[in-house]
Amino acid sequence: MSILVVGSVALDTVETPFNRVEEVLGGAASFFSTAASLYSQVNLVAVVGSDFPQEYLDFLRSRPINLDGLQILDGPTFRWVGRYHMDMNARDTLDTQLGVYAGFHPVLPAGYLDSELLFLANIQPELQMEVLQAAPRTRLTVLDTMELWIMPAREQLTEVMKRVDVLLLSEEEVRQFTGKASILKGVRDLFALGLKYVIVKQGSYGALLFGVDGTYFSAPTYPLEEVSDPTGAGDSFAGGLSEAGGCPWQSDRLFRLRGL
Amino acid sequence: MSILVVGSVALDTVETPFNRVEEVLGGAASFFSTAASLYSQVNLVAVVGSDFPQEYLDFLRSRPINLDGLQILDGPTFRWVGRYHMDMNARDTLDTQLGVYAGFHPVLPAGYLDSELLFLANIQPELQMEVLQAAPRTRLTVLDTMELWIMPAREQLTEVMKRVDVLLLSEEEVRQFTGKASILKGVRDLFALGLKYVIVKQGSYGALLFGVDGTYFSAPTYPLEEVSDPTGAGDSFAGGLSEAGGCPWQSDRLFRLRGL
C-alpha cells in the first residue's frame, strides 16, 4: 500500500521545561512520513530550502519514503519555534516562518499516481487544496490542520474540509473552529460539512473517533514515564493510522452512539 | 453480593457556570451507594444531622441500600460548597463543614458482617480506619479520598492506604500525595505502600488502572453533550466498579506494562 502526503518539512526550535533543541528535523509531513513508513510506502510532497541539512535528507531517504516530490528551492526552509508549558499538553508557538512554502506549488511525479491513501498534513489550506485536486482518486482522504490556519484561513480550510473523508483536530481546535464548548456539538457541526469521520486528539489522554453513522471509538495512550518533546506526536499518530489501511477502528472495540 | 460502604452523606451547594443548586443530596457515600445499588446490595455506614431532609432518606430507602448503619444525631449535617470553572474538570471547594461527622464513631450492625466488598469512600481517614478495623474480612477493600485529607491528614491516610487493596485518586491527587509530576512514577510510589491496584481518575477523559503486577487498563468515558453538575462523578464511577464484583478489569482489553 502507498500513501501520498503533503505537508511541512521544517526546522524546529523547541523549548520544554527540561530541554532546548535548535533547528532539528521537524514539520508535520516529516513526522507523519517517519511513522507511516513503518507500515507503508510513503510518497512525500514538500519543499525545503537550500539551507536544509543533508543529514535530514539522508534520514528520510533511509526509510521507504519516496522523495521524488520533494523540491529543493533557493531560500530558507520552513521554521517553527515553540515552547511547552510545565504540563506538556500545552504549548505556545513563538514564531513561524513559511520560507520557501510561501510561493510553493507542488508537482506530483508520475510514480505517485497509484497512491491508495491521501494525507493532507498541516500546511497552508491553499496548498492542501492544490494537492487534493491534482491527486488521483484515492480510497480515503485524511486532513490535519492547526491553530495557525483556523482563523486566518478559515474559508479556504472549510473548502478543503468539504472534500475529504476524515478530519483530525485537537479538542482546542474543535472549539476554535466551531465555537462550541461541547466537543459532541462541535463534531456535529463538522459532520454538516460532509465529513465521514472526525478524530479528536486529546494529547496525553488519547484520541476519540466519531463517525457520521454514530461510530464512536476511544483510543487510549501508552503511559510514558518521561516525555522529552511532544512535538509531532499528533502527526506520528496520524502516520500510525495507516497501519490498517486507514481504518484501524474497524475493530470489536467500536460501538455506536445513539442520536449523534 | 453486598458492599459495605462508609463515607459522607451530605448537603451540597454547587455553582457551575450555568446553574446553582443549594443543599441538595450529596456526599461520597450517597453517590457511591446510588450507583452500586444498581448491581448489588449496599450496607451504608454514615451519619446525618437532625436537619437532614426526610425526602433524601426516602430516596436512599427506595433502593437496595440498607440504612441500619446510618445514625441520625443532633447537630448539623455535613455540608460542602463548591464552584466549577468553565472547564467542568476543575473546581474550587469554597467551604466544608463536617458537622456531626466531627465526633462520629460508626457502629456496624450485625447484618453488615457478611459484606463481601468494603468501600472506604471519601471521609476523615481516622473514620475510614475505624471501619476497616471493625469490618469483617472482605474479599476486596477499596479506598477513595480527596485533596481535603491529603495534606492535613497525610499520616493517618497513609496508614489506611497500607491496609487496602485498591486506591482511587485523581491525577492531581496522585501528584499532590507523591510529589511526582509523572503519574507512572507516582503510582510506583503508591505500590511501595502495599497497594495491589491504583485507579487514576482523569475526569472527563476516563480512568486508568495500574496493577502492581504490571496490569494496565484504560477506561474511556461515554461522551456527553451537556454536563450540568459533575459532583460525585468519581464516587458514582467507584459504585459502578462493583458490577463485576470489584474486578471489571478482568477483561480482554487488559494488557501488561513492561517494567512497571
Summarize the structure.
The first copy, chain A, has 260 residues and is α/β, with parallel strands linked by helices. Chain A has helices at residues 28-36, 54-61, 125-134, 147-150, 154-161, 171-178, 183-191, 233-240; strands spanning 2-6, 10-15, 20-26, 41-49, 65-73, 78-84, 91-97, 117-120, 140-144, 166-170, 197-201, 207-211, 215-219, 255-256. In chain A, β8 (117-120), α3 (125-134) and β9 form a beta-alpha-beta unit.
What's the structural blueprint in terms of helices and strands?
Two copies of one chain form a homodimer.
Chain A lengths: L1 E5 L3 E6 L4 E7 L1 H9 L4 E9 L4 H8 L3 E9 L4 E7 L6 E7 L19 E4 L4 H10 L5 E5 L2 H4 L3 H8 L4 E5 H8 L4 H9 L5 E5 L5 E5 L3 E5 L13 H8 L14 E2 L4
Parallel strand pairs in A: 1-4, 1-8, 2-6, 4-5, 8-9, 9-10, 10-11
Antiparallel strand pairs in A: 2-3, 6-7, 11-12, 12-13, 13-14
Describe this structure in words.
Two copies of one chain form a homodimer. The first copy, chain A, is an alpha/beta fold and 260 residues long. Chain A has helices at 28-36, 54-61, 125-134, 147-150, 154-161, 171-178, 183-191, 233-240; strands at 2-6, 10-15, 20-26, 41-49, 65-73, 78-84, 91-97, 117-120, 140-144, 166-170, 197-201, 207-211, 215-219, 255-256. A ten-stranded mixed sheet of chain A has the order 5-4-1-8-9-10-11-12-13-14, with helices on both faces. In chain A, strands 3-2-6-7 form a four-stranded mixed sheet. In chain A, strand 6 (78-84) and strand 7 form a beta hairpin. In chain A, helix 3 runs parallel beside helix 5. The longest helix of chain A is centred in the middle third of the chain and has 10 residues, at 125-134. Chain A is globular. Chain A starts with a strand and ends with a strand. The A-B interface holds A 86, 181-185, 202, 205-206, 208, 216, 218, 220-221, 223-226, 253, 257 and B 86, 181-185, 202, 205-206, 208, 216, 218, 220-221, 223-226, 253, 257.
